[in-house]
Specification:
The protein is mostly beta strands. It has a single domain, classed as Jelly Rolls (Sandwich). It contains no helices and 25 strands.
């Protein structure tokens, strides 16, 4: 199982959020193992796609969120049919493809930054995140989702069986009741474009490292931090000056760092420093890209408040784009 969920708005947390287990309080499962739609909120369900034996496929499903009014989301829950490696929910300012489109072309963030906002992610068949219900003053946290918001699901499947599998993803967004006062949450996410891993040599895998330093506002209070790479990743970390906030040696199970009331976490150095280290055992040169079978990623993902309720913050390499 890989622990990895995301917020906007929330990252990789397929294991629940501080103080609660994934799926609480109302992520009900239907008779087929899928998710019952929330009473208040919305559900996104991708079309079924057949994956042949031995194939690894990354595809995107484009949509408008089904909510007809603006909502503040307090919880995400997701379900992937067997074979799902990871899924990411991106929200976008405009339609990148016609809603309802299912495509493998330009599927992700690396060719479209800035624009897509990393909003939620899971690397287990059943994942979820529950936002903290107290910002330190008794006010719950929430992610703002506009009515009919443009977005897409990026989904990776690996079929290790001897027969075709029928891949589908369900995502539930559970909303606060209308009129509930919330503190808005934003995502802080990085992307490094400088990955270039040379092929392995007869003496062994080829190492590589990329890193970045991103400006963080002094009033931003973080409650979750993690990283994201593909299978060549062997070590990732996030620092505040010399203080290590997050450290992982597993690309598949990176884990999370969390903070809660009363203080959460604020960056005293004013900089979020991140680094990803790799070993390339293949005969191919590997660069930054969205396809897990052939590319690599280096991302740090955190969730903070208060935000202005829009796109959060995105840092490309070491440059803050918004």
């Amino acid at each position: 199982m890989r622990c990895f969920a995301v917020v906007l708005v929330v990252p990789f947390l397929a294991c629940g959020s501080p103080g609660q287990s994934a799926g609480e309080p109302d992520a009900h499962v239907d008779g087929d193992g899928g998710l019952m739609p929330p009473t208040r909120g919305f559900q996104i369900k991708s079309p079924t796609i057949d994956i042949d034996p031995g194939k690894e496929v990354t595809y995107c499903y484009y949509f408008h969120t089904p909510n007809t009014v603006d909502m503040s989301i307090k919880q995400w829950s997701s379900h992937m049919t067997p074979g799902g490696e990871h899924m990411v929910l991106y929200l976008t300012p405009t339609d990148l493809q016609t809603p309802g489109t299912l495509s493998t072309a330009q599927c992700g963030i690396t060719d479209r930054s800035p624009g897509p906002v990393w909003t939620y992610s899971a690397q287990t068949e059943d994942g979820g995140v529950v936002l903290p219900d107290d910002d330190g003053s008794g006010t719950p946290l929430g992610q703002s989702i506009k009515a009919g918001h443009s977005g897409f699901l990026q989904v990776q499947y690996l079929n290790t069986t001897g027969a075709a599998i029928h891949a589908q993803v369900e995502l539930n967004a559970y909303a606060h009741d209308d009129g509930v006062r919330v503190t808005p949450v934003g995502s802080f996410f990085t992307l490094n474009h400088h990955i270039d891993l040379l092929p392995a040599t007869p003496s062994g895998p080829t190492p590589g490292t990329v890193s970045g330093d991103c400006t963080v506002a002094p009033d931003a209070r973080f409650f979750l931090m993690t990283t994201h790479t593909y299978k060549q990743g062997v070590h990732t970390f996030v620092k505040d000056g010399s203080t290590v906030l997050f450290d992982s040696t597993s690309w598949a199970h990176p884990g999370i760092a969390t903070w809660g009331t009363p203080s959460f976490y604020s960056f005293t150095s004013g900089k979020l420093s991140y680094q990803c280290e790799y070993l390339n055992p293949t005969t191919n040169e590997i660069k930054t890209g969205d396809t897990a079978a052939t590319d690599e990623m280096c991302m740090a993902i955190g969730y903070y408040f208060p935000s202005d309720g829009t796109a959060g913050h995105f840092c490309l390499n070491s440059m803050m784009l918004y």
